[in-house]
Amino acid sequence: MTVSEYFSGLFTGIKSLLIGMSVTWKELFTKKITQQYPENRGTLVISDRWRGNLTMPHDENNEHACTACSICQMNCPNGTIVVKSKTIETEDGKKKKILDTYTYDLGTCTFCNLCVITCPSNAIRFDNSFENALFTRSKLLERLNHEGSKLREKKAAPKAAENIPG
Amino acid sequence: MKDIKELVLETIPSAVVEEKQKLTVTVESRDLHPLVATLKADPAFRFDLLMQLIGVDWGEKLGVVYLLSSSADISKEIVLITATDDRKNPLLYSVTDLYETAHLNEREVFAMFGIRFINNPDMRRFILNSDWTGFPLRKDYNADPVLNPVNLVSKEMTDIAPSIYETPQGEIKEKLTDIFEKDDYVINIGPQHPSTHGVMHFRTALDGENVKKIDVHSGYIHRGIEKLSEELTYSQILHFTDRLDYLAANINRHALCMCVEKAAEIEVPERAQYIRTIMDELTRIESHLVAWAAMCNDIGSTTAFIYGFREREVILDIFEKVCGGRLIMNHNVIGGVMFDIYPEFQKDVEAFIVQMRKALIEYHRFFSGNVIALGRMKGIGMMSKKDAISWAVTGPAGRGSGWSCDLRKYVPYALYDKVEFNEVIRTECDSFARYMNRLDEIEESCRIIEQLLPNIPEGAFATKTKPIIKLPEGQFFQRVEAARGEFGVFIESHGDKFPYRIKFRSPSMALVSIMPHICRGEKIADLIAIGGSMDYVIPCIDR
Amino acid sequence: MLLEISHPLELIKLTASLDSFLHGLLPSWAALLIEFILVGVVLLAMYAVIALILIYAERKITAFFQCRYGPNRVGKYGLIQSVADMVKILLKEIIHVDSVDKFLFYLAPFFVICASMLTFAALPFGNGLHAVDFNVGVFYLIAVSSLSIIGVLLAGWSSNNKYSMIGAMRSGAQFISYELSAGLSLLTVAVLAGSLQLSTIVADQSYVYHWNLFRGHLPAVIAFIIYLIAGHAETNRGPFDLPEAESELTAGYHTEYSGLQFGFYYLAEYLNMFIIAGIGTTMFLGGWNAIQVEGWDGFNQVMNFIPSYAWFFAKTGVLIFLSLWVRWTFPRLRIDQLLNLEWKYLLPINLVNLVIMAIIVVFGLYIK
Fold first, then answer.
1. Closest Cα of chain B to C142: distance in Å?
2. CA–CA distance from C301 to each of A151, C4, C12, C291, C298 (Å)?
C-alpha cells in the first residue's frame, strides 16, 4: 500500500461515511410512515378483496342462498368447512335437502378462496374483517348460518358476491 | 454434430429413449453414473447442471428422476430415470462426484424414500430426524402418529455420518464418519437465531473468529407439502405454493399453474398473461427489497432494514388491492388469475416505480458506497462460476458469479419474450456482486413493468376450466425464474385428478448447500453477511 | 457585582451555603460525612435519571432516523416509556443458569456499573458541581473507565456460553486497542492544556476560541475526532458493537443475563455513552462554560443567564446525538476492520498528531 493509496483510501472512506450520514440526516425530517393503529381504525382502507373471515350473507328475512350442495366442503383443501344437511318434507310431500349447520374453522383456513369461487349459488363470501384474534381456540369454530334461517326462494336472483369482480 | 440420442445409446446400449415432454432416458441403476459422466463431459452437450433430482415411488420400483441441463444454455434439457426393485434395501449410485448439488438432494431422497446412494460420503437424513420411522413419500408410508411421537425431550446431535461405498473390487461396504473433529469449537447458528432467515440450522465449527466447517441441518418447519399434495386436486395444491418461498409467492404459483396448463392444454388469455407478468415482476421487486433490507440488517445497519420495508409496503398495498393478499397472494389460478386488476392499478404502479427509482438512489448513497459495507462485501464469500454451476446456484447469486442463467431469457414464458430487459450479470463472484445484482434487477423489473403497463389488453382474465382438472398420464416439468433462482415444478400424473408425485425444486436449497463451501475460512460475522447475500428462504427448502 | 447578577441559576452558592451551614452546626468530620452521603445519593439519583432520559432519547431519535415515531404509547409522546421499562426490568425474574460460574457470573455486572459510577465522581457537571477535583483528573477518568472491561470479560467467561465467550474476547481486543487511541487523543489535549486537573482545563477555556478544540488548530480537531471514534468504540455501540453483535452472537457477552443483571449492563451502556460525551465536552468543548465571545458583552450576559450545568448537558447532548447519528447510519465493522481502523489509521495518525501538538505548544503557536 503506497502512501497516496493510504490517504486516498482514508478520505474516500470518510467521504462515503459522510454521504451516508447526510442520507439519515435527511430522513430525520421526512414524514414518518408508521401507521397509528388502532387510532386510525376509522380511516383505515382495507381492500374489498381482502379475505378476513368467511361469512354467509343473510337478508332481512333471515334467508341465505346456501343449498347445502357441499361443493365448498369438497373444494376446501384443509377440511375447514363442514356442511351438515338434513332432509325435510316440503308441503307438497317432496323430500328436500336443506342446510342444517354450516361450520367454518377459522383456525385451519388458508384463505385460498376456492370455496367462494366454486360456490354455485354465491352463498358465501369473505368479509373485510382483520382483527380476528380470540382468547380461545374453540371460538375459531364458527357457525355461519343464523339460527332459524332458511333458503332464499329462487325468484330473487342471488346477489353477486362483491369480492368476485367480473 | 452427433444426435443426443445416438450419444446415449452409444454409451448405454440398453437405455430406453423416449420423446415425452422432454427427452427421457431410462437406464439400469448401474448404468446411470457412466451415462451422466458421459453427458457431462461431452463437449457438444455439456450437461453439467443437475437441475432436479426427484425421488419417486412407482409401487414395485423405487427410483430417481434427474433433470439435467447445460450451464451454457439452460434451455437444453434431458431427463434420466433409474430405479431399483429392492424396496427393503434400495441402493442407487450417487452422482455427488459429478454434481455437488446432489449431496443434499440425495440425502433428502434418502429421508423421504429410503433410497441410499452408493458413494455419497454423507448419508444422513436431510430434513427428517435421524430416528424417524418410515419413509414419508413412499406410497405405503404409515402416518400413524404413534410411530413418530412428538418429542418433548432435548436430543443431543450425534454428528456422525454413515455412508455406503463401493470398493474398487465391487464390494459394497458401510462406514461411519465424524463430521467434526474432537476438539472443534462448534456453535449452533440456528435454528433460533436472529439472522438465519427462517429456521436454518448451521452447526459451525470455529477456529477463533474463522469458520472452519459448517454442517447444514434443516427440516425444522417441514410441512410435508409434497405428500399432502398427492391427495389434493390441482387447484387445491395451488395454495401450498404461496407458502414455499413466501417472499416470492406469486412466482411459485405461476410455475405450478403453467405446469398444469401446459399438461392439460389450457389456453391462458392475453390479459391474464399481462397481469401475471406484471405481478411476477412486482413480486421480484418486493422480494429483492426484503433481501436488500435483510442483508443490510445482517451487516448491522438496522436503519436500512426499515427503509427497505418502507418501499416494500407500497407494493404490498398494491397486492392487497389486486388480490386481497399481502404476503400470501393467492392470485394465479389454473387458466388465468383469480382477480382482475383494479381500475387505478396502472396509476398506483406507475407512482410506485417513480418512488422506487428515487429510493434506489438513496439505497446506493446510503449503503452501497459505504466504506464499512464495502469491506464487509467485496472479496467476501467468493463463489466461482464453476462452483455456482456445480451447486446449481441460480438467480441473482449465480449471475453474480458471471453465469448467465436467467430463464426469462433462455426459456421465455408468459410475456418475457415480448419485453426488453437486460440480464444483470457480474463477474466479481463476491457478496457485493450478489448485492448489486439484486438492486440492478429491481431496476430491470421496473423497466419490464413499464413496458407492459400501458398495453394491458381488454378481455377475460381467466379461462373457464373444468371443475376437476385431470392431467394426462406423463411427467411434466416447468421451470421459472423466481426471485432467488430457478424454481421448478415436477408433476408425475397417472391420469387422475390428483398428482401421483409432485416435487418443487427449491432455489434456496442450492443457495444453502453451497454455504459451507463459500464460508470456509471466512469470519463468523461474514458467514451471516454471506447468508444475507445469498438470500435463502427456508420454508422453500422445508417443503 | 455584574457577575453576581449574571449567574442567577448557579448552584454554587447553594452548595457553599449548605457547606457552611453544616460546618457551623456539626463538627467537621460529621459535616463531611453528611456531605459525602449527600453527594453519593445525588450522583446515584442522577445516574438513574440520566440513563432513563438517554434511553428515551435514543429510542426517539433512532425512530426519527428510521421514519418511525418511536415510543408513543406510554404517556404523552411515550415520555414515561423508559420508566415503564425500568419497572419491568426490576420486576423480571433473574434466571439462574446452572452451568455458569456462579460467583463470577453475579459479580460481573457490578464491575461494569461501578466503573461507570466512579467516573461520575470526577466529571465537572457545572460550576462547583464537581465531587472530587483530582489534580490528575484526566488520568483518573481513563483509569476507572477502563475497569468495566473486566466486567465484560468476566461475564463472557463465566456464562459458559460460546456466544458470550466470543463476544467477551472481541470486547477485550476492541477495548484494549481503542483505549490507546482515546488515551492518546486526551493526552494531546492535556499537552495543549498543560494540566491534568479538570477544573483548570475547564477554567482555561472561557471564550469560544479558547476551547481546546479551536485553540490547538487542526491537531486539536483531529484529536477530537479520534477521541469521538475511540470513545464510541469503547462504549460497544454500533458500528462498534461487535461484542454483542446481534447478527451473529445474538446478544454477545450478556446473552445469559436476565432481569436486573441485564439491566445493569443496559444502564452502563447508556451511562458510558454519557461519560464519553461528558469527557469530550470537558476536554474539548469548554466544559460547563457558556458560549462567550470576547467583546460581545450583551450576548455574553444572555448566555451567562443559562446556568453552567445546562451548558454542560447541552454540549454533552450534542455529542450524544452525534454518536446516535453515527450508530444508526453505519453497518457493523468486522473484527479485522475494527483492528485495522485502530492500528493502521487511528494510532499512527494520533501519534503524529501528538508530536505536532507538542511542537505547537513548545513554540506557543496556539491561540492565547
1. 28
2. 88, 11, 18, 10, 5
Kindly report the average pLDDT of chain A as a whole number: 81
Asked whether the beta carbons of C354 and C191 are under 8 A apart, the reply is yes
Contact call for B321 and A163, based on CB within 8 A:
no
Given a cut of 70, whether residue B439 has pLDDT beyond it is yes
Q: How confident is the model at residue A155 (pLDDT cuts 50, 70, 90)?
A: low
Give the Cα separation of B412 and B421 in Å (integer): 12
What one-letter code names the amino acid at C335?
I
CB B49 within 8 Å of CB B74: yes
Q: Which of A163 and B140 is assigned the larger pLDDT?
A: B140
B149 reaches A (C-beta below 8 A): no
Query: How many residues would you count in chain C?
Result: 368
What confidence tier does A61 reach under pLDDT thresholds 50, 70, 90? confident
Yes or no, beta carbons of C335 and B297 under 8 Å apart: no
**Is residue B289 within 8 Å of residue B297, measured between CB atoms?**
no
Task: Assess whether pLDDT exceeds 80 at residue C300.
Answer: no
C325 contacts A24? CB cut-off 8 A: yes
**B253 to chain C, minimum CA–CA distance in Å?**
32
Question: Is B343's Cβ below 8 Å from some Cβ in A?
Answer: no
Pick the CATH number of B1-140 from 3.30.1490.110, 3.30.460.80, 3.40.630.30, 3.40.50.150: 3.30.460.80
Q: Is C206 exposed, middle or buried (0-12, 13-18, 19+ CB in 10 A)?
A: middle
Q: C329 at the B interface (CB within 8 A)? A: yes
Residues 6+ apart with CB under 8 A from A142: A53, A54, A103, A104, A105, A106
pLDDT of residue C146: 80
Higher pLDDT, C126 or B94: B94
**Predicted TM-score (pTM) of this structure:** 0.88
Q: Identify the residue whose cell numbers are 450437461.
A: B47
Q: List alpha helices for B23-146, DSSP H.
A: 29-41, 102-113
Nearest CB among A10, A21, A30 relative to C67 is that of A30
Please list the residue range(s) of chain B that carry CATH number 3.30.460.80. 1-140
Alpha-carbon span B141 to B132, nearest angstrom: 12
pLDDT in tens, A7-48: 888 888 888 888 888 888 888 888 888 888 888 888 888 888
**Mutation choice for A interface testing from B234, B339, B361 by most A CBs within 10 A:** B339
Instruction: Residue count of chain B, please give it.
Output: 543
Instruction: Establish if C65 touches chain B: CB-CB under 8 angstroms.
Output: yes
Give per-residue pLDDT as tens, B370-395: 888 888 888 888 889 888 999 989 98
In total, the C-beta contacts within 8 angstroms joining chain A to chain B are 75
Q: Do B371 and A111 touch (CB under 8 A)?
A: no
Q: Per-residue pLDDT tens for A73-118?
A: 888 888 888 888 888 877 777 788 888 888 888 888 888 888 888 8
Mean model confidence pLDDT for chain C: 84
Give the distance, in angstroms, between the CA of residue B283 and the centroid of all CA atoms in the same chain: 16
CATH 1.10.645.10 location in chain B:
225-541
Query: B478 near B247, Cβ under 8 Å?
Result: no
B338:A118 CB<8 A: no
> Comparing C-alpha atoms, which of B114, B75, B56 is closest to residue B406?
B75
Nearest CA in chain A to C61: A28
Residue of A13, A17, A49 lying closest to B323 (CB–CB) = A49
Neighbours of chain A (3+ CB pairs under 8 A): B, C
What residues of C are in contact with residue A9 (Cβ under 8 Å)? none
Given a cut of 50, whether residue C318 has pLDDT beyond it is yes
ipTM rounded to 2 decimals:
0.83
CB-based contact C337 B209, cutoff 8 Å: no
The domain defined by B225-541 folds into Cytochrome-c3 Hydrogenase; chain B (1.10.645)
* Residues of chain B positioned with their CB less than 8 A from the CB of C164: none
